């Protein structure tokens, strides 16, 4: 085929290819909800972003092509069917209800989509009225398609406005406290503790637990917190995990799909009306006369009408499949990609990040940690506030020689404990049986996940967390490594055997590596392997709970648009378990006393209500 033949072929097929491409994008966007929610399909999310960004562009380009085509060639054979595609392109401009927004910021652009809607509908009506010359039955089908297209296109900015953060915040109100059940913080702590001590699982009863207000950083009254805690405690661990999945799934649907606008009057009427309009347009087109029409255009029209109708019929039957997993980094010791900084984050997110299907297992440990906190630590408002400040101190209460590793900025503690955990894992004195133990595997999973947050999501780990700590430490490790084969075990051996040489005065690099080595050696001095990894696991569980409670609800909501974070599970879990959230800290009226963290006494309370020393056995986590 020569160049002139290729140009001729393109001029003939250009419009058909554009409209069919636009149709394909709509189908991809419709099923993109699975790509966004299923962890195993995370690597395909870049395709969802490309489709979301290009969907409007392809439809608009097809309209412009059709406009220019008929302006230059008014009497082309088959042009009537091409004009019939105009309202179908308007339908495509309306997008798919399963993905009204790709990110939280897209919801704020609803005004821009109104301008796009008005301009493109105006052009479409002009093109149709200017060049339509078909028979009446096809005209009736076109009118129905225009009604369908205008309604579908109007629903898009409406859905974006409804799911904008301000609108979501206005709709996410917590129930007001009952006058006869208003609690002070002291009374709330006592009632919550009583609920935990007297908890009994109830597998048969279903409980309604709301959580939307948490994602807009609204505190709940203590009376509401007690009701939620009572309901949540009655759920067995498996059902509790499902409840967390359900709540996160509904929040995702409310912020990133058209489900919230679908329950409004306009949304409900459109959902019921649009499939019938689409079916009627197919019936009218099938009954219309097609003599003299281009067979290729007839087939393309049938494809467009039938496939568009199928999309309208499938939406009411879409279901929720939210399923988050713990994320870990690959390789499991340190990210090997230290060069090309401008590409580092992209590759780390889409190539070096894996999904670990153990979210339920770790969630159970976090819940037991909180239950033990109510039973053995919390006995008044002061101990309640202190427990929510713990980030490893309780796990180290019997090992005060390790407490120095927590007396530093949280991001540095996370980094040091992350390296120390892997150093202990690869230490020659760690037995193969211990490496396969549950506490060991869970410790490394949480460690890798927290390091992932530090590197990729530092704003969620902690306010002011510095992802740049990794680069500085990584450069020093590579400079001082004597291994030719850069495996994880060899790197760990280099750090353990060869004390890193202090090459600069940069505290972030030099102190962290030497401190991590110092911490690992101190941990290895604990003779009992089981106890060692129980301590490490306890520290990581406390750090995980601490980080979740210090992350803004807005950031949890934003992460849902990118597949969700396991940290959001712990965030909901902490609130449902009656723990203090960031909103609670900022909205409470009681001032928090300034106390030195290292001087905090650890106390527990027995069933007789008396506060006791917590120097006894460490609670299992």
Folded structure, characterized:
The protein has three domains: 222 residues, no CATH class; 162 residues, no CATH class; 150 residues, no CATH class. The chain is an all-alpha fold and 621 residues long. The protein has 28 helices and four strands.
Indicate the mean pLDDT: 79
Shape annotation: elongated
The domain tally reads 3
Percentage of residues in strands: under 5%
Count the beta strands.
4
Largest sheet geometry: 2 strands, antiparallel
Q: Uncertain regions: pLDDT < 50 for 5+ in a row? A: 320-324, 330-343, 500-509, 592-610, 612-621
Distance between the termini: 70 Å
As a percent range, the share of helical residues equals 55-70%
Count every helix, treating DSSP H or I runs of 4 or more residues as helices: 28
Radius of gyration equals 30 Å
The order of strands across the largest sheet is 1-2
Q: Which structural class matches the secondary elements? A: mainly alpha
